[in-house]
Amino acid sequence: MNTKHPSLSQVLADHQLSGDSRFSHKNGQSMVQWPKCACGWSDHPNRHPEHVEQMWREARTITSSEQLDALPAGTVIRDHQSEFGCIFEKSADGEGEVPWWHDGEPHYDLTEINLSALLIHHPDWDTEPHTERR
Ligand SMILES: [Zn+2]
Question: Could you tell me if 80 and 67 lie in one domain?
Answer without folding.
Answer: yes
